[in-house]
Amino acid sequence: MERRGRLAVAAVVPGTGAAAVRGGGLFVTASTVKVDLVAALLLRRGGADGLTAGQRELAELSIVRSDNAAASELYLLVGGADGLDAAYRALGLVETVAGRDGYWGLTTTSAADRVRLLRRVFTADGGALPGRRWLAGLMRRVVPEQAWGVSAAGAGALKNGWLPRSATGRWVVDSFGARPDGTLVAVLSDGWRELAEGVAAVESAARWAVAALGTDGPGTTGSLAGEPS
């Protein structure tokens, strides 16, 4: 039997203790790490007001258009892997390790840590990230062709990642973000034969998680892919 993709999902309603979690383990971030890079830069510069016009442009390109060249420049600006790991410690991300030698997309993380990062961006839980509202605004402006994934569960602010692994020929497909009602959703996955297959599974998982929380909104019914309905 051919192996199916692997997936982990976590969703929380901040301030209530409500959570829906399925699966676990570590995954490659792909381009979702661009949120991390901008957060690390905000930490170094003391917020959005401390950014130069050029740094603001790099951040916008990285989040809104998922520009890889801009992300590579941000990676250098924050001090590479060591600087990014320092930011993770400051942000309280305990299961995330930066990709080395310029391979920022190979940063590894967990669904729980993706939600921890979302808390820093969309709430003041655990200490506010300076400039968090500006970063959240960028995540609300992701270009329409990249606004799949957790948007299927009503998330209006998000960042996705997609990456074919050269070693396996299989796709990494990740998505995380926030709904207007404050629900935070993260889905990480890998091992897909096609990008579209991974996107469908991620969207199914996001809908399952929000439905499990009992949160009303678009696309909140159904079951997690591979589970009985």
- How many domains, as an integer? 1
The profile of the biggest β sheet is: 5 strands, antiparallel
The arrangement of helices and strands along the chain is EEEHHHHEHHEEEH
Assess the beta-strand content as a share of residues: 15-25%
CATH superfamily: DD-peptidase/beta-lactamase superfamily
Strand elements, count: 7
Instruction: Please identify the structural class as seen in this structure.
Output: alpha+beta
What is the name of the CATH topology?
A: Beta-lactamase
How many distinct helices? 7
Q: Give the neighbour order of strands across the main sheet.
A: 2-1-7-6-5
Radius of gyration: 16 Å
Helix content: 25-40%
CATH-scheme architecture: 3-Layer(aba) Sandwich
What shape does the CA trace take? globular
3D architecture notes:
- By secondary structure, the protein is α+β, with helices and mostly antiparallel strands.
- The protein has one domain (6-213): Beta-lactamase (3-Layer(aba) Sandwich).
- Helix 2 crosses helix 3.
- The chain has a five-stranded antiparallel beta sheet, sandwiched between helices. The chain has a two-stranded antiparallel sheet with strand order 3-4.
- The protein has seven helices and seven strands, in the order E-E-E-H-H-H-H-E-H-H-E-E-E-H.
- The chain starts with 5 loop residues before the first strand and ends in a 16-residue tail after the last helix.
